[in-house]
Design a protein that fits this description.
about 170 residues; alpha/beta; six-stranded parallel beta sheet; 6 helices; 6 strands; globular
Length: about 170
């Protein structure tokens, strides 16, 4: 109750479950409902959720549309956001198509972790993907990847033009 702004994040590979989940999430009056299409862990991906959705953009669109439809029924509908990765692997970089698909289905914001699913958390995040995405879509873009200091966040903001940054593992120390 003391929070002024927060989001609820969901994982699913089923549009019907996504729709039903919104009513449960709305009980907490979130400002944002986020669909996580970036999680690379096997227990999420094996169910077709998380970054597995980067390989099935029609399903991603159905899920975002279901979330948007479910949220629209609320007196004060929360925004729908989607977190994605650069792609599944280096031969399937599709973050622009995924973001456009999500925005067309009702997503009001896109967060991009600028690594592929295969990379997991290894290697370097490719911030040029964040810059390219910011120029490609009309919704706000949040950048993620290799943020461990406030200086890195400022650098990402200035070099990519993104609207905000997301500290993930970096917030954990």
């Amino acid at each position: 109750d003391n929070e002024n702004f927060y989001a609820v994040q969901l994982f699913t590979a089923d549009p019907e479950i996504a729709f039903k989940s919104v009513s449960e999430a709305l009980k907490f009056n979130p400002d944002v409902i986020d669909l996580n299409c970036g999680c690379p862990v096997p227990k999420v991906v094996k169910n077709g959720a998380g970054s597995a959705l980067m390989k099935d953009l029609p399903l991603l669109k159905e899920i975002v549309a279901a979330l948007h439809s479910g949220a629209a029924a609320a007196a004060a509908p929360p925004a729908i956001s989607v977190k994605i990765r650069s792609g599944w692997d280096s031969s399937s970089i599709n973050y622009c198509r995924a973001a456009e698909t999500a925005a067309d289905a009702g997503a009001a914001m896109i967060s991009l972790h600028a690594r592929t699913r295969v990379q997991g958390y290894s290697g370097r995040a490719d911030w040029t993907h964040i810059k390219t995405l910011k120029q490609a879509v009309s919704v706000p873009v949040i950048g993620s990847g290799d943020l461990f200091t406030p200086q890195a966040a400022l650098e990402m903001l200035s070099t990519t033009g993104c609207d905000g940054v997301m500290f993930s593992r970096g917030a954990m120390g």
